[in-house]
Design goal:
The complex is a heterodimer of chains A (361) and B (199). Chain A is built from 10 helices and 15 strands. With 361 residues, chain A is an alpha/beta fold. Chain A has a domain of 170 residues: Up-down Bundle (Glutathione S-transferase Yfyf (Class Pi), Chain A, domain 2). In chain A, helix 4 packs across helix 8 and helix 8 runs parallel beside helix 9. Chain A is globular, with a radius of gyration of 22 Å. In chain A, 45% of the residues are buried. By secondary structure, chain B is of the alpha/beta class. A 4-stranded parallel β-sheet of chain B has the order 4-3-5-6. In chain B, strands 1-2 form a two-stranded antiparallel ribbon. In chain B, helix 5 links the parallel strand 3 and strand 4. The chains are: A alpha/beta (361), B alpha/beta (199). At the A-B interface, helix 3 and helix 4 of A face helix 7 and helix 8 of B.
């Protein structure tokens, strides 16, 4: 997987950018607030169709005009594809138009054409933070490798909106228990698609993540457990009716999924030190890239946003070992300090300043 | 902005209320009609008036009809034991064009959508159930869209109709005729594989 060319128009602080990254390591150095993360965000959007950073599309639209355009030429399996995302601000939202090779496609049809593994400071809270971070981790990986997953995820969101709306009508005395039954079936059907994909992915992730973690943390045993909906979903949905009516929301379904990460049998979230948790995060992210490569036969483009400076010792070395010879890698950093000289000498190095990127050797 | 004569202004405003017509297009259409010869413009006005005066909904199936029943419900050559439920009159036309179906229809004019306040009553479903009970229907084909609301509506109908003793079916998902297998989208292909038949 290769990003051959990236063009941005009015994306956050980039008025205009035309970038041709190299096939190996690309290092972008610049002070904070100059546009390093904005660059990676644009690349990630081409893989995920939406920004991994914000739910509000209009936030990425820069100040020059009421529209943004992200265009890229990517190469997958020897075939070159052109991808484009155009955003036009409409009130407090943005309209998104997606094109693959010049043909308009729906948002959930974009992922899978270009695949990335993104690792940025937000991910350092993957173990410690709320379950939504761990669901996002699974989703970002799965939309890129599992056919139909992005569509199922969009469908699940819609089913929940409709079912919750029906719950509120019923709670207000509008009747309609028979209509709710229909939404229950939809929830179980589409929720099943999502949770089967997640359960399978976790099974594939675990051995890779465990091997990686054990190497960094001298033999410490990492286990991941997928905490999905109960085995008998139909019964659980049925039994939760009173509670759902009271809250006006759906308490059973993959939108409450979580991952439990265990280190030597103990919950990492509660008992792990910050160092142990970070090792587990690095291991999970490396396992993610390995799973994408395994499933698709092609390494994803690795996007590392300023995480190396947050890591130390073995964790940093493990990541750098992975970076060397990992195909295309895009790294941002405030300084060149954390990188070994052999990496810098083989990398293409760029500087980022005020929404402009220039090459420096 | 310079003031346009009141009748022209009013025409622009009316046109811009139509779906898919913005203010610019409305202006262009209005000026086109202004330039067009009188007969052409009046014929358009008459056509609009006629549609509203003479076309309504079939009281049996809610298809568009000139009179109280639509052409399909009036026909004696249709098989009344087969009933096809569709979301819109346009979907009905699409099924009709196949010439593959010789039964009767029921047009919902929408799908179940709690967000929009649309439930079975708004879609005339009680009338549908009455028809199934009283008109000797043997099979109901639920041909709603394959999107989330269309599927939920199909599930609702299936659950409500089966106790009435009819067979409830759903059109198969499959490969487009003449389409290349390699270009089918993944979900369509997956469903086509899951729904495969033996020769």
């Amino acid at each position: 997987m290769l990003l051959r060319r990236l063009q941005l128009r009015n994306h956050r602080n980039y008025a205009h950018l035309d970038l041709t990254p190299g096939p190996g390591v690309n290092l972008f150095i610049g002070d904070n607030g100059q546009g390093k993360t904005n660059l990676l965000e644009a690349v990630a959007m081409l893989a995920l169709s939406a920004s991994p950073r914000t739910r509000r599309d209009n936030e990425v639209v820069g100040p020059v005009a009421a529209a943004t355009r992200i265009e890229a030429e990517v190469e997958s399996g020897g075939i070159v594809i052109e991808l484009a995302i155009a955003l036009t601000v409409e009130g407090d939202r943005a309209r998104r138009v997606i094109e693959v090779d010049g043909v308009r496609r729906r948002a959930f049809d974009l992922p899978g054409h270009f695949r990335v593994t993104l690792f940025w400071p937000d991910d350092l809270g993957l173990i410690k933070g709320g379950p939504e971070l761990r669901r996002r981790f699974l989703n970002q990986m799965l939309v890129q490798v599992e056919p139909g997953y992005a569509r199922a995820l969009a469908g699940l969101k819609r089913v929940l909106e409709q079912r919750n709306s029906q719950l509120k009508r019923m709670a207000a005395g509008d009747g309609g228990g028979d209509v709710l039954e229909a939404w229950n079936e939809e929830l179980i059907r589409i929720g099943g698609e999502v949770s089967i994909a997640r359960a399978r992915a976790v099974q594939e992730l675990e051995p890779v993540a465990a091997r990686c973690h054990s190497e960094i943390a001298s033999g410490e045993r990492l286990e991941i457990e997928y905490l999905g909906p109960p085995a008998n979903v139909a019964e659980a949905v049925h039994n939760s009716l009173a509670e759902d009516l009271r809250r006006g929301s759906t308490s059973i379904g993959p939108h409450h999924d979580d991952l439990r990460v265990l280190l030597d049998g103990r919950e990492a979230r509660a008992y792990g030190s910050q160092g142990q948790q970070r090792t587990a995060v690095v291991s999970l992210k490396l396992a993610e890239a390995a799973l994408v490569a395994q499933r698709t036969g092609e390494r994803p483009v690795l996007l590392l946003d300023d995480v190396l400076s947050e890591l130390d010792g073995e964790r940093r070395s493990a990541l750098l070992r992975q970076v060397a010879g990992a195909g295309q890698v895009i790294i941002t950093s405030v300084e060149a300090g954390p990188f070994p000289p052999e990496l810098i000498s083989s990398a293409r190095v760029w500087t980022v300043s005020g929404g402009e990127i220039s090459t420096c050797g | 902005m310079p003031q346009l004569p009141e009748p022209l202004e009013r025409l622009i405003q009316e046109l811009s209320r139509l779906p898919g017509i913005g203010p610019k297009t409305a202006q262009r259409l209005a000026f086109h009609l202004l330039r067009a010869d009188r007969q052409r413009a009046e014929s358009l006005a008459l056509a609009i008036g006629d549609v509203k005066a003479r076309i309504g909904y079939c009281e049996r199936c809610y298809n568009i009809a000139e009179g109280s029943l639509c052409a399909i419900c009036i026909s004696t050559r249709r098989d009344a034991s087969l009933l096809c439920v569709v979301e819109s009159a346009l979907d009905l036309l699409a099924v009709e064009r196949t010439s593959e179906f010789n039964g009767l229809y029921f047009v919902l004019h929408g799908v179940i959508s709690p967000i929009d306040g649309i439930g079975p009553d708004q879609l005339h479903m009680p009338q549908l159930f009455d028809r199934v009970r009283s008109e000797g229907v043997v099979e109901v084909i639920v041909a709603t869209d394959a999107d989330i609301e269309g599927e939920a509506t199909a599930v609702y109908l299936q659950r409500a109709l089966i106790p009435l003793g009819v067979t409830v079916t759903r059109p198969a998902h499959g490969l487009p005729v003449g389409g290349d297998l390699e270009y089918a989208d993944e979900l369509t292909l997956a469903r086509a594989m899951a729904g495969r038949r033996s020769f």
